[in-house]
């Protein structure tokens, strides 16, 4: 008898071991299946290779990477007020705030997609009052003569979808790539707005210098008019000289007035970039134009890698690639496991008691057998979206190369032009000095002086306009490079 009992125990142990092995094997199969994904292996799309730029030495082709640091590139202009304005933009600009909110939305979608990988637990409790007819055939089933019955229920349920084909994980990967693209979009818009602010500020400072030049010129022309009127009253010069002096003075005064609205427009644009109403913001004039930064002769290609628009375009390709796997997973069955249990009773007093318990457990396999081509159309759509994002990524890279080339050649041409215009300005100033001396000596008429003065003023303003163009082009080049050309910062990761 004892021996038979021992054999029964061993048999039971063997049965349990066999069942455990089957459960373990089943679990391992589920794990292995859950490692499957149906999206294509991601590879960065090929882009046109460019080993160097035509107008800069030291450039090599590299891989986009916006994780490299940019630094406070606006500090290259050495203006403390400009530094403060950029800090205000970073903190208060409403467009940046919009993109920041979009990024938080994308982060929330990532957390939601990650949560779908885990089981969900639900708890419910409630009371139900129901009524049933009290005819002769069913009156014995009712404990209440009115046919009304109260039912108390409490239930705890656990459900989990096994990610056999990678649908959930590919959805998570797509959301993660979209969130990273959103972050890059926010960096791109911030860089663009910073560039716009710095350009507006530099143009405003050049206008301040233009205003000082015209004010000094108006004072000089006023003295010339007074002297010409005195000569006319003394009979030394004719009425035509007075008319020329008045024309020259009034034209310059009109140019000076014209600068007022130009400066106001730039000032109002800066106010909006700072998140302020134009009526609440004002920039006092200064007597200094920020220095033009010197562009290095050799620049590492890693600088172009930091462009956030290129990073955003590539991450959108990654998101589209993962979405293909989600669409293909719809062809395969979904496996969900559920477990529920609780208590149900018609009496509140003994509601939570052992006799009133109930439970259920089991898997559920669901697959769509026919959908009229809906899944195939969705796969085709996601593949078309992928092709679209690849083309957009390649175009963004090409646009980056084009912008850098344009601003490099623009700065080079401006530099050569500045040298010639400064020489022309020096000659115009010398000619004006000599002409004034001849006029004071009575050797020439005032008309000759007017022509030389107009030429000198035109050259003065042309030099300032060219300086404004060089400053703006330098900012545009910095933005095209992803934010500055600090080689030490370029190889440092973002904090």
Automatic annotation (TrEMBL):
Entry superkingdom: Bacteria
Keyword terms, alphabetized: Cell outer membrane, Coiled coil, Lipoprotein, Membrane, Palmitate, Transmembrane, Transmembrane beta strand
InterPro entries attached to this UniProt entry: MdtP/NodT-like (IPR010131), OMP_efflux (IPR003423)
Annotated region described as Disordered, given as residue ranges: 125-146
Cellular-component GO terms for this entry: cell outer membrane
Major subcellular location class: membrane
Membrane topology designation: Lipid-anchor
Ranges annotated as biased composition (Low complexity): 130-146
Protein family membership: Belongs to the outer membrane factor (OMF) (TC 1.B.17) family.
UniProt-listed PANTHER family: BLR4455 PROTEIN, OUTER MEMBRANE CATION EFFLUX PROTEIN
Protein name per Swiss-Prot or TrEMBL: Efflux transporter outer membrane subunit
Organism: Pseudomonas laurentiana
């Amino acid at each position: 008898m004892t021996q038979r009992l021992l054999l029964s125990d061993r048999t039971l142990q063997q049965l349990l071991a066999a069942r455990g092995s089957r459960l373990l094997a089943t679990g391992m199969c589920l794990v292995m299946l859950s490692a499957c994904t149906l999206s294509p292996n991601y590879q960065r799309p090929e882009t046109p290779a460019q080993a160097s730029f035509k107008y800069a030495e030291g450039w090599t082709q590299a891989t986009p990477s916006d994780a490299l640091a940019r630094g406070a590139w606006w500090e290259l202009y050495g203006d403390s007020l400009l530094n403060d304005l950029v800090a205000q933009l970073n903190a208060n600009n409403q467009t940046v705030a919009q993109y920041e909110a979009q990024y938080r939305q994308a982060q929330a979608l990532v957390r939601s997609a990650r949560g779908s990988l885990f089981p969900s637990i639900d708890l419910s409790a409630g009371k139900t009052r129901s009524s049933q007819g009290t005819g002769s055939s069913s009156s014995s089933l009712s404990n209440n003569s009115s046919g009304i019955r109260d039912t108390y229920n409490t239930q705890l349920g656990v459900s989990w979808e096994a990610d056999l084909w990678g649908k959930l994980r590919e959805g998570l990967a797509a959301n993660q790539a979209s969130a990273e693209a959103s972050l890059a979009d926010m960096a791109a818009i911030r860089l663009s707005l910073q560039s716009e602010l710095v350009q507006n500020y530099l143009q405003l400072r050049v206008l301040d210098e233009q205003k000082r030049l015209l004010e000094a010129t108006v004072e000089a022309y006023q003295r010339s008019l007074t002297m010409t009127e005195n000569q006319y009253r003394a009979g030394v010069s004719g009425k035509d000289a007075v008319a020329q002096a008045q024309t020259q003075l009034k034209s310059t005064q009109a140019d000076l007035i014209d600068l007022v609205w130009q400066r106001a427009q730039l000032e109002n644009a800066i106010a909006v970039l700072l998140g302020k109403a134009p009526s609440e913001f004002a920039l006092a004039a200064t007597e200094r134009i920020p220095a033009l930064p010197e562009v290095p002769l050799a620049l590492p290609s890693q600088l172009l890698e930091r462009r956030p628009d290129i990073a955003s375009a590539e991450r959108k390709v990654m998101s589209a690639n993962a979405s293909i796997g989600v669409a293909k997973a719809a062809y395969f069955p979904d496996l969900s496991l559920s477990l529920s249990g609780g208590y149900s009773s018609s009496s509140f007093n003994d509601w939570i008691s052992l006799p009133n318990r109930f439970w259920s457990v089991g898997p559920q396999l669901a697959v769509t057998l026919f959908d009229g081509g809906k899944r195939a159309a969705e796969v085709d759509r996601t593949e078309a979206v992928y092709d679209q994002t690849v083309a957009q990524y390649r175009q963004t890279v090409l646009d980056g190369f084009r912008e850098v080339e344009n601003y490099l050649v623009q700065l080079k041409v401006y530099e050569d032009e500045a040298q010639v215009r400064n020489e022309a300005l020096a000659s115009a100033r010398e000619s004006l000095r000599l002409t004034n001396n001849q006029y004071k000596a009575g050797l020439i008429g005032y008309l000759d002086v007017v022509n030389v003065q107009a030429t000198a003023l035109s050259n003065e303003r042309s030099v300032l306009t060219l300086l404004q163009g060089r400053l703006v082009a330098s900012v545009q080049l910095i933005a095209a490079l992803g934010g500055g050309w600090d080689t030490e910062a370029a190889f440092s990761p973002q904090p």
